[in-house]
Amino acid sequence: MIELEALSKRFGSVEAVRGVSLRAPDGRITGLLGPNGAGKSTTLRLLYGVLEADAGRALIDGLDIARAPIAARARLGVLPHNAGIYPALTTRENIRYFGRLLGLGGEALEARIDELVRLLDLGAIADRRARGFSQGQRLKVALARALVHSPRNLVLDEPTNGLDVLATRNLRELILGLRDAGHAVLFSSHVMQEVAALCDDIVIIGGGRVVAAGSPAELAGTVASGLLEDAFVAALATGARP
Amino acid sequence: MRALVTVFLKEILENARDRRTLLSALIVGPIGAPLLFAFLINTMVERNLDNAERPLKLTVAGRGNAPNLVAFLEGHNVVIKDFTGDGGAATRAVRTHEERLVLEIPADFGAHLGRGVPAPVRLYTDYSDTSAAAERGRAEALLAHYSTRIAQWRLEARGVAPSLVHAIAVDEIDVATPAGRAATLLGMLSYFFVFATLMGGIYVAIDATAGERERSSLEPLLTLPVERRVLVVGKILAAGAWMVVSLTLTVVAFAISMRFVRLDALGMSNAFGPRTALAIVLLMLPFVVLGAALMTLVASFTRSYREAQSWLTFVVLLPTLPIMYAAISQLPSRPALMWVPSLSQHLLITSLLRAEPLAGADVAVSAGATLAVGAVLAAIAVRLYRREQILG
């Protein structure tokens, strides 16, 4: 389970994140939805601890990322925004590197890599060096890397960026499978349809603040039209008011 | 420890597939440096040999005024070329580099000589033309020699022993051992070793820091449950491993290429055997740590691969500056200098090449001080990686 409690972050005079609280419980998919520049990536970076919060805290299975970063990160799989992979290494080597750093090794690691190659349909590029991979191929390798230790909690920052239709569908099935296996999945997106199709809970973020939260049905119920899109726009308009 | 080894091995493997790393670690130092050095030494050797053997070309105005002097000069390997014109013409000719040296013998030269008063000659020369210095020196020495000979004849003619005018007899005894004389030239070698060492790690350091950030692979790495100091130390050690490879190859290449240099032509011997080569690599190991930490630190500061590249090409020059100064000024080895990294390695290697015994305390101070500076730089690099700005 991932819990954010009143996280705040300021860069100079810009308040990027202002008291964001949310819960991503086990066995559910939580979507962080917001326009570009709303503070989604900053919130997630605070969550996985590459940025330090000015106030508030982020808990991974109850472990504070700021106080127990190593233990908290061991329970976390992260796909950062535009995550890069090592161009001189093959797909397998890229995954293996992270697997080893996560304490895996030997037969178990190789079996897990095989599994991920199958799961993410990486067979054709498994032993090719990553230089020249397409955006979608790079993303899948980065995703495989984030999943190598079967983390209880998964954080994906704009995971469908640059994926084609088929790959997006595979990813969706993968995420649903993880949810059904009891993992907590938190992912961000600025594409409303994607979030609507996949998420059990939606947190709408605008101007660094949570402006609305609830299940897709709950959110749609807040507007007369009953459309999620209208709810999204309305929430952002309300949140933009001081 | 496991994570450290993982990071180390991954950086080694990744860079083994990088053309820039291979080029700078396996080609630039190990092949480029010995070639350049052998070329420099051979040029120097040949010029030394040439200067003594080659006839001195001297342009003389008014040779008819001093036939004996001209005959003396011609008897001492001087080729005389006639010059017609006055002093003004001679000045112009030298200034425009038409002539390097013009000796003007005035018409009253013989008359002065006959009366026993100093006979004037004028040597037109351009002191700003350093390439003429050797020829000027030879011409002046020959004129002084002729002058002394005439003076001796005059004293003998008056019944005075010529030895009376020599109050002091200076006899120079050159105590330089052949190996020591070679070491003056070989003193430049440590410069190449330091350079090759740094070149071996430069692209590894850039790739592991600025390169990792530019490829956006740093952020995923930092989300792993691995201490940042482990990541940084692993990267530093990987750069160090490549530096050792580059250094070792360079030392071996030098040991081999030195066999083809005509050091014997300068009366020098060559003390550069396999044992010396091994000792050089060992003496340089602490500097490898320092250099790897320094380059990793500097590359971590920069925002991009290109910026890291331009910074590091400047940074790799820093450790070579004390060496250049020491090699040019022929700085003698002193225990106090062992505290200065790179300079201490230079002095120890130079002593080694002179076949002088190394003081254990000097080696210990050199290694200790260099490692301490390396540890401080590594600690700063770790602190840098703990800051959130490291993501750029």
Describe the structure.
- The complex is a heterodimer of chains A (242) and B (392).
- Chain A has nine helices and ten strands.
- Chain A has 242 residues and is an alpha/beta fold.
- Chain A has a six-stranded mixed beta sheet, sandwiched between helices. Chain A has a four-stranded antiparallel beta sheet with strand order 2-1-4-5.
- Helix content of chain B is 65%, strand content 5%.
- At the A-B interface, helix 2, strand 6, helix 3 and helix 5 of A face helix 1 and helix 9 of B.
Shape of chain B: elongated
Mean pLDDT over the full residue set of chain B: 86
Number of helices in the DSSP assignment of chain A? 9
Got a strand count of chain B?
Answer: 4
The averaged pLDDT of chain A comes out at 91
> What is the largest interface, and how many residues per chain?
A-B, 36 and 25 residues
How is the topology of this model organized?
The complex is a heterodimer of chains A (242) and B (392).
Chain A: E1 2-11, E2 14-24, E3 29-33, H1 40-47, E4 55-60, E5 63-64, H2 69-74, E6 76-79, H3 91-101, H4 106-119, H5 135-147, E7 153-157, H6 165-180, E8 184-189, H7 192-198, E9 201-206, E10 209-214, H8 216-220, H9 228-240
Parallel strand pairs in A: 3-8, 3-9, 6-7, 7-8
Antiparallel strand pairs in A: 1-2, 1-4, 4-5, 9-10
Chain B: H1 2-16, H2 19-53, E1 56-61, H3 67-74, E2 78-83, H4 87-95, E3 101-104, H5 109-115, E4 122-125, H6 133-157, H7 178-186, H8 189-214, H9 218-222, H10 228-257, H11 274-301, H12 305-315, H13 320-329, H14 343-353, H15 360-386
Parallel strand pairs in B: 1-2, 1-3
Antiparallel strand pairs in B: 3-4
Helix pairs in contact in B: 1-10, 2-8, 2-10, 8-10, 8-11, 8-12, 8-14, 10-11, 10-15, 11-12, 11-14, 11-15
